[in-house]
Fold each of these.
Amino acid sequence: MDYLFLALLYFLSGFLMKLSDDAYDEQGDKKIAVISGIFSGILIGYLVVNSQDAAYIFLAIMLGTLLSRKIDGVHHFLTLITFLVFTFIGGFPSLVFLTLSLCTLAAYLDELGHDNIRLKKHEFWIIFFKYRFTLKLLIILLGILTFLKTFHIFNPVYLDLLNPSAIVYFLLFEISYELSGYSFNQVYKSIYTISDNIRLHKLIFNLKKLNHQILGLFC
């Protein structure tokens, strides 16, 4: 798969995932939350079907979120269903249990630590879990170990490693996720501004059409 196309899919999936969460949590807008969530599920599903690295990353995020009981909105359920339907139809790549388990544990720890009030006195851990560094560090480690493997420095038997490019792709996903959060208000307003303009243009078009029909009756 083309590298730029993969990068675009990671970027868009992260951006839409965060847009879905914030639309639901901050605005109570189920429509935008569900639509953006479904599109995110489709993109992630496509990545999982076509990339073993993406399968480890996103299945781990899904399982970690499920285990921590963070799937708690209609947008989450519909996104999850979309993702599962797409991946079951497309087919999962073969995965090693140990690697998936480690990634899932990292994602689970990130979800437990994220917004955990018991950590409010520990600034380091607040920042660490705010940006979910556990999974990031594990993916970086698995990518580095792959690099070492090429020099026969490290050759695990029961552990599947990730392509070093997965580090870049996942960081791109995370950056777009955070960028979506920082720009949410502007993006959210823009969505409805565009929607209102489309409705206005349709109204003007229909009024012109009606005007021509009325004139036709008298001509």
Amino acid sequence: MRSKSSLAFPLLFAALLSLQNVAAAGKVLILDYHSFLGTSSSLDWTPEDFGAQLDRMRALGYKLVPLEDAMSGAIEGNDNIAITIDDGNHSVWKAAESVLLPKAVPTELFIYPAVIGHESHFLTREQLVTLVKQGFVVGSHGYHHMPMSALAWRHDRKTVTMEVTKPADLLQYILGSRPTFFAYPYGVVGPEAHDLVHKEGYEWAFLANEKFVFVDPADPALDHWAVPRTIVYHWNKAALFHFLEKNAPPKS
């Protein structure tokens, strides 16, 4: 019979190895873009400006990583940036063709599917299917992009519930696979909707505001259904790059 000490050693080694892997997992800054039309909107960019931002991030030493890799712990270091794009504006198609695909930038598209294929300023279903085939990943962004705050819940819980329960089924119908990530419309969620998203089976859900936050997915204190993202506006672009320069990895 093996002694207790001989049995304990492999268990201790496995535990230490697990802790080492957690410690090695990296942090990620999750950026949130919206459209690429070149209008005066603070959320809108030209494809050229968008591409220049991505180039500048890489020149500073940052890695542009898939959001899925970041959240699963498949990244290392504190020099990771994940690109997400909300809503599904039709300009995403051009940005994909002229910027994201040529630059090999992994991208998560958060889509509210009620408009896909039904409104002219959004992607068509065929375009969305093609983007997924090209490597883009799609997550839920509500159904009609209605607020999911505590106030919205008190005012109309039926609509908030629909924002949570309907998008995955339609996205699965369109794309053939079910989304596992959810981004809250307007970047805000109340406790009731937060719990619904959790119960609906989403693995991660994301807030959004102007703050710059490196996320550590391995942090036990991190709420999996309230993960910070940074919205990139025209008015905070300079501050964003100042933050990136300050936190850039040292030059080798």
Amino acid sequence: MDDIKNKKPINNKKMSNSKKKAYRKRKAKKSRINYKLKMWIISIIIILGILTLGTALLGGMLFKIDFIEVNGQSIYSREEIIESSGIKSGENLFLCNLSLAEKKIDSANPFIDNVKIKRKIPNKIIIQADGAEAGFAFRNQDNNIFIVSKRNKIIEQTEDIPENVLEIRGAELESYNIGDRIVYKNQAIKNIVDEIIEVTMEDNLTIDKIDITDITGISFRYDHRIKVFLGMPDDFDYKIATAKEILENKINEQERGKLDVSSIKNGGKSVFSPDYMID
């Protein structure tokens, strides 16, 4: 009881003043931080604005296209290629859409098969436009012949199939529009064609026609004189390797006919039948 009596009373007024001072101090500190943050944000915005304006001004003055160079072998003139690109002298080097320009050149010029465009600082555009090389021939339902490049672009319609062009019989395309990239109606047919081409190329076997009109009687023609029957779309590696051995070592170079290797994988024999009416 004596201890309680001896304790001094708490000065509530003094405590209240101390809290007010601490609060005002925290508030002042927070205000300073907020002020610095706002000034920092404003400074960044001003700097970005200056940089953007400077870039626009410098781009307009320093990076105008003055020269357009065209490289590559094609049937089109430099002027035709530049005009089809849509790129014009005087426009900004960095604002022109190179990807779009490449697509424009490709679609407007069927005999151009590969286009690459690049910038060269400070004022030059370089267009590399390579001419299309005929690789394949397809026939539509009306038996019209369409020549397709080695990069699968339809480049022209012709009356005859050129020399060194591989004819693909029995494969239908989605469209036969000049300038389009080919799309097979049947993906399975495309896979068969691709595999035969790949295997014959690996075996260094020169062929000039693939016929998949009958999916169970697939064939290809060798050297315009030997029709090789592969039969069903299986075991192409083995069948074509066997055909290569027979064609190069067992059949005279002047002979024409039909070589059947369709059943050799199942124990059958390869059979060559002379026929001088091979188409």
